[in-house]
């Protein structure tokens, strides 16, 4: 189980600033890597399962995610059981819809941040379907 570092807010703010204009890229700034990297910034521990960071294409990413049971299973294994999205706090991981697929994002208050082709985009937290606490 991961625990937030005492300066997690400063660390998260620096991480978000760094990624704000970085476009989506498989294996370096896709939803799973973005969420894992943010949790690592907050806790100092990488929650990504072994092998998740090796993909460089969509096909490889979907295979890696499937091997680990899907996005929900990956988040649950790393962070524990899901919580109600309405209970999510800044820094928690959430599941949102990204077109026809699900995506992991990071709660940033009333919005969640997710990587896109133009950098981080806000998604209203009311659209979050699941959440996992980063404690």
Structure in words:
Helix 1 packs antiparallel against helix 2. With 135 residues, the chain is an alpha+beta fold. A five-stranded antiparallel sheet has the order 4-3-2-1-5, covered by helices on one side.
Which keywords apply here?
single chain, about 140 residues, alpha+beta, 5-stranded antiparallel sheet, 5 strands
Derived from helix and strand composition plus strand pairing, the structural class reads: alpha+beta
What share of residues is helical?
25-40%
**What's the β-strand tally?**
5
What's the assembly state of these chains?
single chain
- What count of helical segments does DSSP give? 4
Strand order of the largest sheet: 4-3-2-1-5
Whole-Å distance between the termini? 8 Å
Low-confidence residue ranges = none
Global geometry: globular
Order of helices and strands: HHHHEEEEE
Largest sheet: 5 strands, antiparallel
Beta-strand residue percentage: 15-25%
Average pLDDT: 96
Rg result = 13 Å
Helix-strand layout with pairing:
Elements: H1 8-19, H2 31-43, H3 58-67, H4 71-79, E1 93-98, E2 101-107, E3 111-116, E4 119-124, E5 130-132
Antiparallel strand pairs: 1-2, 1-5, 2-3, 3-4
Helix pairs in contact: 1-2
């Amino acid at each position: 189980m991961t625990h937030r570092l005492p300066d997690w807010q400063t660390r998260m703010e620096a991480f978000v600033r760094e990624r704000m204009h970085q476009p989506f890229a498989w294996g370096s700034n896709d939803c799973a890597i973005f969420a894992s990297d943010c949790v690592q910034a907050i806790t100092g521990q990488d929650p990504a399962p072994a092998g998740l960071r090796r993909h460089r294409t969509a096909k490889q990413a979907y295979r890696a995610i499937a091997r680990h049971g899907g996005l929900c299973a990956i988040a649950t294994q790393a962070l524990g059981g899901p919580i109600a999205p309405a209970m999510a706090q800044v820094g928690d991981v959430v599941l949102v819809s990204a077109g026809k697929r699900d995506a992991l994002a990071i709660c940033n208050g009333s919005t969640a941040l997710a990587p896109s082709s133009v950098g981080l985009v806000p998604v209203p937290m009311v659209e979050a379907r699941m959440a996992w606490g980063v404690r």
